[in-house]
Amino acid sequence: MAGQSMFRLSEIYLLESIFKRVANVDFKEPTFKNSANISVEHQVLENDSLQITVTLDFKAGKSRVKEISAKIKMIGIFICDTDPIIPIDQFAVANGPAIMFPFLREHLASITLKAGISPILLPSVNFIRLSTENKAKKKLPNA
To answer: Residue 133 belongs to a domain with what CATH number?
Structure first.
């Protein structure tokens, strides 16, 4: 894409990492379920770079008992030298988090492995679809 301006990841760093587990985790229990919630925030910085914060809240366990929980927050700084071909708001809610998500996935897999359990490998996330669904939810009138 010669001549087209794209965002590039300048920095990514871990801002917060909290992990908890119980002593005996039974993954074979039929009622063992997990859930992941992803939130994204962004802001344009004074030097016209874009800061995106992605937070992953992960929980796993049986029924209402949490056996594993993790909260991982990472910040990515993206630079775009000229006018981007993708609007900043679109990049901030879809493309930027998609670039950052593998780092969060790897961190969760690594800390679970270090915690003595099988690494938790989250599936890929379609952030473009997720951002479209979130826009649709925001437009719905309150019931």
So the answer is: 3.10.420.10
Residues 6+ apart with CB under 8 A from 32: 26, 60, 61, 62, 67
- Can you say whether the dihedral through the CA atoms of 111, 23, 54, 31 is positive or negative? positive
Please report whether residue 17 resides in a domain: yes
CA 72 to chain centre: 8
Alpha helices in 82-126 (DSSP H): 88-90, 96-114
Please spell the DSSP secondary structure of 14-34, one letter per residue: EEEEEEEE-S---TTSTTEEE
pLDDT tens, residue by residue, 112-121: 999 998 889 9
Give the count of beta carbons closer than 10 Å to the beta carbon of residue 42: 18
The count of domains in the chain is: 1
Residue 115 belongs to a domain: yes
Determine the Cα–Cα distance for residues 131 and 89; give it in Å rounded to an integer.
10
Answer whether 0.70 is exceeded by the pTM.
Answer: yes
Residue 88, pLDDT above cutoff 50: yes
